[in-house]
Protein: Receptor-like serine/threonine-protein kinase
Amino acid sequence: MARVIWSANRASPLGENATLELTGDGDLVLREIDGRLVWSSNTSGQSVAGMQITEHGNLVLFDQRNATVWQSFDHPTDVLVPGQSLLQGMKLRANTSTTNWTESKLYMTVLPDGLYAYVGSKPPQLYYKYLVDTNKSRKDPTRVTFTNGSLSIFLQSTQAGKPDKRIALPEAKSTQYIRLEYDGHLRLYEWSGFEWTMVSDVIHMDDVIDVDNCAFPTVCGEYAICTGGQCICPLQTNSSSSYFQPVDERKANLGCAPVTPISCQEMKNHQFLTLTDVYYFDGSIITNAKSRDDCKQACLKNCSCRAVLFRYYHNDSDGECKSVTEVFSLQSIQPEKLHYNSSVYLKVQLPPSASAPTQKRIKVSLGATLAAISSLVLVIIVGIYVRRRRKYQKLDEELDFDILPGMPMRFSFEKLRERTEDFSKKLGEGGFGSVFEGKIGEKRVAVKRLEGARQGKKEFLAEVETIGSIEHINLVKVIGFCAEKSNRLLVYEYMPRGSLDMWIYYRHNNAPLDWCTRCRIILDITKGLCYLHEECRRKIAHLDIKPQNILLDEKFNAKLADFGLSKLIDRDQSKVVTVMRGTPGYLAPEWLTSQITEKVDVYSFGVVLLEIICGRKNIDISQPEESVQLINLLREKAKDNELNDIIDKKSTDMVSHHQEEVIKMLKLAMWCLQNESSRRPSMSMVVKVLEGAVSVENCLDYSFVNANSVISTQDNSSTYSAPLSASILSGPR
Structure:
């Protein structure tokens, strides 16, 4: 019986008569019968001469010198085969189930000091680690290799077959493979001659007694308690109140869901459901919360906190407090066997009527009644005035929105509240508000709820008018909006890979993006900006180009997001005066004079291009003092002809195989970073450079200057409109 050990199109099953083709240009492509592209190796133009599957099960594309151009071993799914290595930053991602091959939240990755397994959340929650004690001095990435009889971990060792540490496995009697499975287990399978047999469960939970798999994070879904292999929803002791209900009454292992979702608008109605003798596998330690009460209060003050674990040995005033933003499976324990006490406090949402004691409610009611009677006449007079004023304000506001031509679909606030489950699935926060995941019909969407006075009617209308009437493959599509009373919301298409910064800054320990993917992302950004600057009826300056505002779809196609700072520029205007806005680190020098054109976007694009190649932020205070500002480092390396020194060292693909192309791309970034805006290329010129039609200008000025150091020294947030955090329209992922 054959087993699938690697899949290119894991989340996109093919129909009948699909085709796999190695094109004449060297690209391996998978297409549906109608010609729709499902997957590509992105190897066109890399002199691919042929393809083979090695004896180890590695799918390889090679060139005329028989050198590997692309291999499936560099893109693991959920399986390791003998001879295959998982390099530092790579991930094994488990399937959702035995029949659903889409990626689940469970993954295993290699970090500098060992092997780690997580369940994805914000932040990821650790459920297994295998550490290697060593003072690592070599710069080579750590790797874990599946060999006969072990998972071998190489940190410093350079000798083949002599790892720094091993995880022992049964020696092979036949063909073997290791799979990270949907339940979080890492299992070794072997062919017995007529079937595949599980011969070892590699992960052993040492911290908690685990006779029935209860220590694994998704064994009982979300919120459910695992006891003796059985899953039950949390219950309030000595109370008829029920705060959780099964997701499916017939399938207890699917977990539980809150009866009333947590609302950040009703934090005063948050309370804890106490679960004694219950353990949770991970959490972020709250260092200043040593007592039980401090632990609980810290969670109540943070709306994103969904539960806390409090564990202590002898004195409950000196314990360990951990918080989580997403609750997976809980586990019943026996303190007398583990020699410590553990309780979990789940945050629950009380209805407003149940949030205060009866006596207090009576007092408040009596006080309110007396106050109402004593001020009745005043209330009536003021009420009439306010009512009339609001009526006209509302009418005026409604007319403002209704008369706008070409608007996207309009939603009521209640409709969006329903579609986002009362704004419960928060994807992130940005300068203008928070973004929530929602669903309209069968379509996932991202709903941006604009908050505070900083985004008023003017900015909201600018965003809706600007992007509601234009469509481009490299611009995030606005599906709809809400303008009801003081509520301002925008509905966007959902981008499953999240924002570019998560990938180039390695914020979720991802493997480095290969050079072809980076080039495609750069070209996508360029085409999106070119459309805004040169192909619209009026020029549109984005004014806040940065990685956080560049979103990625499932196939890493890039789209520009967050036009909240956009300003339209008439084609007969060469410059327009505006207040300083944007994000420190990406501001062009001319912002200091408040004289701007669309060329400020070209400068910001140059910074983003630099960050994509270097794999770090332009301004990074964690770096040594001389390297804090990447642009300053670029200036010095350019003068010394040492540009290769700043290439992302985590990407062997760029450093070893594409260094010449990368240097050319760095020179393009320098062209975009010229101090004089007139010396920067237009975005259409950048497109031509990327497509090979023209070359980068030779006489470049290396004395790069920007507005960022001035802003950072002033340390005055009022000098720019956008904060450091960006509007996030989707999660990673």
Observations:
- The chain has 14 helices and 41 strands.
- Confidence is low (pLDDT under 50) at residues 207-211, 395-403, 567-572, 710-733.
